[in-house]
Amino acid sequence: MNSPKGKIEPLDQIPSGIPGLDTILRGGFLRAGITIIQGVPGAGKTILGNQLCYNHVANGGKAIYVTLLAESHARMMLHMSQLSFFNADLVPERLYLISAFRVLEESGLKGLQDLLRREIQKHGATVVVLDGLVAAEESATSAREFKKFIHELQTQASLTDCTIFLLTGAGSRPVAPEHTMVDGILELKSENVGRRTERVLVAHKMRGVDVLRGHHAMRITAGGMEVFPRIEAVIGDPDTPPAHVTRALSSGLPVLDRITGGGFPQGSTTLLVGAVGVGKTTLGLQFLSQCTADAPGVMLSFYDGPAALLTKAGNLGLNFADAVAQHAVEIIWQPITEGQLDEICDRFLRIVRLKKAKRVFIDGIGGLSRIAGDQDRLARVLAALNIEFQLRGVTAIYTAESDLSAAIHGKPFDGLSLQGVSSVAHNIVLMRYVELRSELHRMISVLKVRSARIDSGLHLYTMGPKGIEIEDDTAGAARILHALESSGSSARVLDA
Amino acid sequence: MASVLVVDDEFGITEVLDALLTDAGHHVRRAINGRQALELVHEQRPDLILLDMMMPIMDGPTTLKAIRSDPQSASTPVILMSSLPPDKVVKMVDQAFESILTKPFRAKDAIEAINTALTGSA
């Protein structure tokens, strides 16, 4: 709406107080508007309705929760009392619970409308939740009567400066008439990801607001409902593009720093690709061991838990444990058995921001991939994370597991599944096994580094009590590859 | 047999209490808010009133005040019903009542409270 001076006035919104939801709604619900919250039984409508009320009254507002043919108040309060937002002290002085079913039965929609008007005025309510809209719809003698009810409710909301939420089951019609009349529509759904079921929230409509579109992950915990906006929608489209930084960060391995052209450029993302056990995690731990209290780091581990990582780092002589003890490094362990991609990214990014981390290590992309389910989406999420890291000057390392292959002369990247993830990495480092006679050797090579002159030669390395030690020149690697060629076993695949 | 007035806006509560008390041989009338309840009290004074605290139009505390201020019904035993903790209910009312039934309650607890109230008022 334009003011007399021609300035665009911001919309008057009331925050939901629900983490993530206000981000999706760009601030909250339209004040004095009507929002439909729909979903199948068990989707979380009643929890959301209650959480909206309790959050609103905790901030000084007044609310009425009106039920039609819904859960009894006693059972509802019993269930809500298990959730942390519940506060019995606020009932009934600030939050009033009434049932309007009998009024609806006896006096129809007109009676319900009158009851709502009187109760809003009597209690000075600024929020009303009507739970069980379907009962009102069923009692309407015609579609026109129901539309009139919604229309009058809208006028009432506006006149009394009361924000109204209508809770209803998932509609059988894709676009119900009431959907065109209300200010906002939220839908709570369940989606199958493999054999798991994930809760999602979709904001279909909020008048005057460019809501974050799409399916957003949602959880119901002891704290109530929490929503995790699609991470790529939140961080993937910054107002200003990331600045180009030329400063490089040490990997913690002097030879690797040299062959990468001085270290990993600040704000860049490095993909460490290699087979299981080749030393990707070790290299990442060495990278994080450089963290200090002023330049901290965060590790997101999908495989090894904190204790295992500390033991591993200890055996390799890394001062990783000191960095963790001094809070220079924080480990987030996320088993791949459960979890939602957006929730994990949200938790990870929150800690990265809170700590003002300068280094992050994700071990590895395979864990994210398993949780994401959708590979196309994973690439978009990784691209969004890269943008966030670039903006914050965070240097990142991701690990990606490759097939257990030997190097093949003339085809050095055979067996390395780089497709889909290589595009999101600024730098790529390959770590591989080479089998010669009865011995396994490890070699490292740099495929690319953003804006740097690299040494792309293969370098032998060992893993011992001082961590990864890379040979300064390529002579050792050349010797082994030459011997391999001479032996005629150049394409030895170890596990196939 | 006693005459019992059940006052509650929740459909399920009045339905179930009506059936329960009718089975026990009582005569039951129902109201969905305090105003309706007062009209029924004026029509015929009940032996016992089961009164909900949170209702539209007229709430429980206001209704109880009106019951007690009318000489005709001032001594009628009243059992309060609420989902709120009993100490909270006590703070909400400043009139005499028999007992509090905390929702959700079991049938035997309701019958016991009703019998106690009716015996005491007999």
From TrEMBL, chain A:
Residues 247-484 form the KaiC domain. Gene3D superfamilies: P-loop containing nucleotide triphosphate hydrolases. PROSITE patterns: KAIC (PS51146). Keywords: Hydrolase, Kinase, Phosphoprotein, Repeat, Transferase. One of its GO terms (molecular function) is hydrolase activity. The keyword Kinase applies. The keyword Amino-acid biosynthesis does not apply. It is an enzyme of class 2 (transferase). It comes from the Bacteria. Its EC number is 2.7.11.1. This is non-specific serine/threonine protein kinase. It comes from Panacagrimonas perspica.
UniProtKB/TrEMBL annotation, chain B:
Keywords: Phosphoprotein. The modification 4-aspartylphosphate is found at residue 52. Pfam families: Response_reg. Residues 3-118 form the Response regulatory domain. InterPro entries: Bact_response_regulator, CheY-like_superfamily, Sig_transdc_resp-reg_receiver. One of its GO terms (biological process) is phosphorelay signal transduction system. PANTHER family: RESPONSE REGULATORY DOMAIN-CONTAINING PROTEIN, STRESS RESPONSE REGULATOR PROTEIN 1. This is Response regulator receiver domain-containing protein.
